[in-house]
Specification:
Blueprint lengths: L1 E2 L17 H7 L1 E3 L14 H15 L10 H13 L9 E3 L1 H12 L1 E4 L2 E5 L5 E6 L4 H5 L6 E5 L2 E2 L5 H9 L6 E7 L2 E7 L2 E4 L2 E5 L4 E5 L6 H14 L4 E5 L5 E3 H11 L5 E6 L5 E5 L11 E6 L6 H12 L4 E5 L7 E7 L5 E10 L15 E2 L9 E2 L12 E2 L3 H10 L10 E2 L1 H13 L10 H17 L1 H4 L1 H10 L1
Parallel strand pairs: 2-15, 13-14, 14-18, 18-19, 19-22
Antiparallel strand pairs: 1-23, 3-21, 4-11, 5-6, 6-7, 7-8, 7-9, 9-10, 12-13, 16-17, 16-21, 20-21, 24-25
Amino acid sequence: MKKAKKPSEKLTRKEKGAITGLCILCFGAGILVPVTLEKTKPTNTDEFSKLETVYDIMKNKWYYADQLENGKDQLVEQAISGMTTNEIDLHTTYMGLDQAQQFSNALSGSNVGIGIQFFRNAEGNMEVRGVFINSAADKAGLQDGDIITKVGSLDCAQATNDEIINAIRNHADQSLKVDYVRNGQERSCTVEPGDYDTTVICNVFDGYGEIILSSFSEDSGKDFKEAVSRIRKAGIRKLIIDLRDNTGGYLDAAQQIASVLLPKGSTVFKEKQKDGTITETLVTDDEDPAPFDQIVILQNENTASASEVLIGALKDNLADQVTTVGTTTYGKGTKQVLIPFDDGTSLKYTETEWLTPDETSINKSGFVPDVEVAGPEIRAVYYSSEPQDLDFGPDEVAVNARPAQLYLSYLGYGADRTDTYFSRGSSEALKQFQRDHDLNVTGRMDENTWKVLEENTLLELNKRQAEEDEQRNRAVEIIQ
């Protein structure tokens, strides 16, 4: 499943919300650095005898055994997958080659480019909607709201996203001229595309700073510290931390970030072992904390794992200074260990349950916000990109009928429903949309119509983002 969102240089950015395999993996990302286990001695039990008997039968006597592409390997893989799949713990899982690589990519936070998020405006140019800290764009002074019109020799309005991104990546570690418009004035700068971390965006406003933290990678702690330093150098002592849609990552990064904000000696989180023993993790000794008078945390239903660890640490240690705004978090209160195997597969298993410094468990319940503000429905809707799901008409029930009708209403075309039934009234609204955009007027959804509908919705979403982000606007009201 996919969600309509602004393009970014990071092509493989994880999708959130839909319960797909990758999303479940990402929500399990409150993990330790990968470790290697010692090999255990073979166990001779009735259970393993049964397993060996079944394996022998399936390998040698099963009628369809010869039809398996990699018979023995597939049987073993399926057996391991079965052992690690249960309803008690969705975060313990065996990952095949593709899943293991996706999970590794999701945790890495690294990318090659100039370090921006952007959307295409009505003219087709790249409007910057976020600059990652310590990236080439950050060093060159590009800012949120800048409109990039030319990258090297490429005219952005005439080029596709892929063409622009490839041109940037092909100039890795080389000078590249970028033409842009800021406040109506044409400007240019030289950037040197290279590696950057995609997890921290820092904005400094009049009276408060904002740090957008998208995940907890190996470099998030370092970049967060740099962001705090910039905000404090501006004389600001009020901070918004945006953890919405942050599904977690390395717990070490959460500890590093908490260490920048909490007094020395503070507990970041505690862990309950299998035998009931409770241990605690403190802030690191090598950080000089930068206290803030007020911190507002933005959270939603996709805020999970290491994000929730950070929320718990700040709430329990700085109760008078911290306010949370948004919706109840995911409730992922366990810690996993990642075991990589020589063949590229991995096992991620739950080792402990983590607790807040006050020894509260939020597993399967999450953090309820201090100030509840729902996010716009249009920004949380998911759709299927499968071709068969992009073909439907009046009086039909379809997976994508709900997002289609929401998009049409959002653009002012008056669809009369927002469920999975595509009504005749919505079909008439779609006809008008097709007329206005020189499409084949059928009142029936097809791939081409969907593409144009999505593009127009994305454009409006980005244009209206500031005014429609009620959660962030409420956070700003609280902190000012």
